[in-house]
Design brief:
Blueprint (H helix, E strand, L loop, with lengths): L1 H15 L21 H9 L19 H11 L21 H9 L19 H11 L7 H10 L19 H12 L14 E5 L6 E4 L8 E5 L4 E8 L2 E6 L2 E6 L3 E2 L19 E6 L9 E2 L2 E2 H16 L5 E4 L9 H5 L1 H4 L4 E8 L8 E5 L10 H18 L4 E6 L3 H4 L5 E8 L3 H7 L2 H21 L23
Parallel strand pairs: 8-11, 8-12, 12-15, 13-14
Antiparallel strand pairs: 1-4, 1-7, 2-3, 4-5, 5-6, 9-10, 13-15
């Protein structure tokens, strides 16, 4: 008898978590069709935030455990779910939610018990859910009662017909999905407090446009395209997206492309600067289905694209031509990135990335490939380019200097021109994040990469014709470093 009891317990524990492979983006869950939470569940599942219990069932009425809540919240916040050891005795590296539990604890969103346990399979109450939602989305609640008040006032929760919230009752998967979807997307909310689009900001995309979408995700429908310099009224910003209103139309845009001061339109290239035969290939790392490093609500793919566009905006004020391997949030194969210089007649290749390790490491580093290959013989050139880029990055952001290093990376190894890969900072480090999350600092980093490339052209390639271009950035030539 004891053997059967143990087997039953193991089956129940395994069923609490569904591997990601069970996620069904077509939402063919037989128990969700015509369910009151169908729209919210569909929204979360199609974005990979929440998964089914099996390939065909969601089990909307099953109670939510603490571990399951951590996984759902962590996914919605874009945190790393990579399994790892935690400080809790009952959340080892093999636990399905270990990565999310560790990340949420670090952020102060969730905690364990005095005995050193986390109790990942303990069911969650509605009151506990309200507190976790408040902490996750910075709604301001510091107790169960204030958290419930916030959810009710913002239209995230409605309570029961008798006017109560029933904080001590357990929360079921359907209701958790509803509250989570409403927290992420105001369009799901019911009778929310008046949304005030009171903060004025501006679109900063250079020559490109910014998509305004129906929801806070690249999966949501594009409802408008906003030009560089467009004024937008912002109600709120979280998880890299801003809820905005433009000419009476409301939607969501990437916060990375909004600035507080109205940006200037890039000036046309002055004919007094002459012409140039140089071309720079700018490679914003990752993109599309490959987000790169994810931490603190930021994605590497969006940071690198933003910095790359700033870098390009400085070159656009000179006769030097540029080509970006991607100018939107799309996935590009490494081999195609490496071939970009040959395909577009480029002279140098600069790849932009952010780093991530354990939250403690910080600083900047730049890589080059140190072996001569049939494809790329430019070892000394790549090293010199890396030296000048690293120096300018250090000048822009006062972070730890992790030096210029040799790296066996495909975009460097398989390239045909002098090529460098920059790691501008650690996205999971609090000190580095102060720079990474700032639009002004990202612009400063784009300028640094522009200047580092000019330094290389002048000092290594002896291209004295680039000297006037420094004035466009209000800068001067660096010392010779290679």
């Amino acid at each position: 008898m004891k053997k059967w009891v143990i087997m039953l317990v193991m089956i129940l524990l395994v069923s609490i978590y569904t591997p990601k492979s069970y996620a069904n983006t077509n939402l063919t869950f037989v128990d969700v069709a015509n369910h009151r939470a169908q729209a919210e569940i569909s929204y979360l599942v199609t974005r990979g935030f929440v998964h089914g219990v099996t390939a065909t069932t969601f089990v909307p009425n099953r109670q939510v455990t603490r571990g399951e809540a951590a996984a759902m919240l962590g996914g919605a916040l874009g945190l790393s779910g990579v399994k790892r050891n935690t400080k809790f005795s009952d959340v080892k590296v093999g636990n399905f939610a270990s990565g999310y539990v560790d990340e949420l604890v670090r952020k102060g969103i969730i905690s364990g018990y005095p005995d050193g346990s986390f109790q990942p399979y303990k069911v969650l109450s509605r009151g506990e859910m309200a507190l976790l939602i408040n902490r996750s989305f910075n709604l301001g609640g510091t107790s169960v009662s204030t958290s419930v008040d916030n959810l009710m006032r913002k239209g995230i929760a409605q309570g029961f017909p008798d006017g109560s919230f029933r904080t001590d009752e357990t929360i079921i998967r359907a209701d958790f999905a509803i509250f989570l979807a409403r927290s992420l997307n105001e369009n799901f909310r019911v009778k929310p407090e008046g949304v005030s689009f009171s903060k004025t900001m501006y679109v900063n995309t250079g020559a490109d446009t910014l998509n305004m979408r129906s929801g806070p995700s690249t999966s949501d429908k594009v409802i408008s395209s906003l030009k560089h310099g467009t004024t937008v009224n912002v109600a709120s910003s979280k998880n890299g997206w801003s809820h905005v209103q433009v000419n009476g139309v409301t939607g969501y845009v990437s916060t990375n492309y909004l600035v507080a001061l109205k940006p200037t339109v890039p000036a046309p290239v002055s004919t007094s600067l002459g012409t140039s035969d140089l071309k720079v290939i700018i490679d914003p790392g990752h993109g599309g289905t490959d987000p790169g490093s994810v931490a603190n609500g930021f994605q590497e793919k969006m940071i690198t694209l933003n910095v790359g566009k700033h870098m390009k905006s400085y070159f656009d004020q000179t006769p030097i031509a540029t080509t970006m391997t991607r100018s939107t949030d799309v996935f590009i194969e490494l081999s195609d990135r490496a071939k970009a210089a040959a395909k577009n007649d480029g002279d140098v290749f600069v790849s932009i990335h952010t780093n991530k390790f354990n939250g403690e490491v910080n600083g900047q580093e730049t890589f080059y490939y140190a072996k001569t290959t049939a494809t790329n013989p430019n070892v000394q050139e790549s090293r010199a380019l890396s030296i000048y880029l690293q120096a300018r990055m250090q000048e822009a952001w006062k972070l730890t200097n992790r030096q210029v290093k040799v790296g066996n990376l495909a975009v460097l190894r398989e390239n045909t021109v002098p090529a460098s890969l920059t790691e501008i900072g650690f996205i999971d480090n609090s000190k580095n994040l102060q720079f990474i999350k700032s639009e002004l600092e990202r612009q400063r980093m784009g300028k640094a990469l522009f200047l580092g490339t000019l330094d290389y052209f002048y000092h290594y390639e002896k291209r004295t014709d680039v000297l006037p271009y420094y004035k466009k950035a209000g800068a001067s030539l660096s010392k010779k470093l290679h």
